[in-house]
Amino acid sequence: MNWRRAGFAALCVVPVILLFRHGLTQDPREIPSPLPGKVAPRFSLSVFAPGQPPLARPVGDTIRLADLRGKVVVLNFWASWCLSCRDEHAGLSEVARFYAGRPVTFVGSLYQDTPSAGTAWISEMGGQSYPSVLDPRSHTAIDYGLYGVPETFFIGADGRIARKIAGPAPPSAVQKIVDSLLAAAGAPTAP
Amino acid sequence: MRRAILVAWLIAVATLASRPNVLAGQSNDTAAYRPGKDSVLEARTSAVAAQLRCPVCQGLSLQDSPSELAQSMRAVVRDQLAQGKSPEEVKAYFVSKYGEWILLAPKASGFNLIAYAAPILIVLAGVVGIFVAVRRWTSNPPVIPESPE
Q: Is any Cβ of chain B less than 8 angstroms from the Cβ of A143?
């Protein structure tokens, strides 16, 4: 056996195998967000869909992140043209209702859509328990590094982004994250 | 008298015609319309947008993508440059939101160095390989059988 040749072949092949091993174990669609752990970008957005009592906010009211300090905030970006948003809608609405009366605020943010289409979609889906806001020119979406809908951001009582879920957010996962954030804030997690 | 009125009317029309914004009922605020400055800003915006990846496309830059998100992001690039931020600061803003993934050309540091070094190393290895092979061929010339005479 020619050891020199074998060594040269190994030198060529091993780096290629290692590169493939690194590349094939990554999901190319999953873009790691640098935001979790950082202070949540501020937003000040106008309500276009009021939600339902007791979580309702009047249309035209402004929801400011600065006013929600000390509360857990669940910010969900959605659109009427987004099929996956249909999958998570009922579950999110239900979880938001479950946390009514506790220091948790759910906010929907309409992404690349019109208020009329958003309102019609909410009616078609049987209503939404929490309010939704408009994001003109997608400034807030870009501030949150959005690359698709639905995406859900969980902001802790300290004003930092704790987690992000890309794609439909399962109600059980939402509840688990909100509970952990409430516990971290020293608030009761169960009614 | 008639001649004076006609001359005055012609002067008024000529003056208005040289200021089309007034005829169109628009403001003629010179501070708001600065074609030279706007074209420079557009060129700077395009240069930065060409270096940033469109998040909803496959391998397209913000400059080349027709998607709504890319257009919105391009507007953010333009706004930030207009506010006096440097191209590096604008790119840093997008990296802070999307990570280094947003840069079409990765930074030449750490693991990314492989992407820059590998092509050079492969070409060098090829050149060395060809050199060695040619030397081997030329140092061992084929033996030509002698003729029977």
A: yes
Range of the domain at A152: 44-184
What rounded mean pLDDT belongs to chain A?
Answer: 92
Chain-chain contact of B97 with A143 (C-beta, under 8 angstroms) = yes
Instruction: Tell me which residues of chain A, numbers 40 to 99, contact chain B at a CB-CB cutoff of 8 Å.
Output: none
- For chain A, the domain total comes to 1
> Are B88 and B72 members of one domain?
yes
Helices (H) and strands (E) in chain B, counts: 6, 0
- Is A123 inside a domain boundary? yes
- Considering the entire predicted model, what is its pTM? 0.74
Domain-embedded: residue B14: no
Which residues in B lie closer than 8 A to residue A19 (C-beta atoms)?
114
- Per-residue pLDDT tens for B134-143? 988 888 766 6
Residue A166 and residue A184 in contact, taking contact as beta carbons nearer than 8 Å: no
Beta strands in chain A (DSSP E): 44-49, 62-64, 72-78, 104-110, 132-134, 151-155, 161-166
CATH number at A140 reads 3.40.30.10
Domain that holds residue B96: 34-105
Q: Which residue of B has its CA nearest to A11?
A: B125
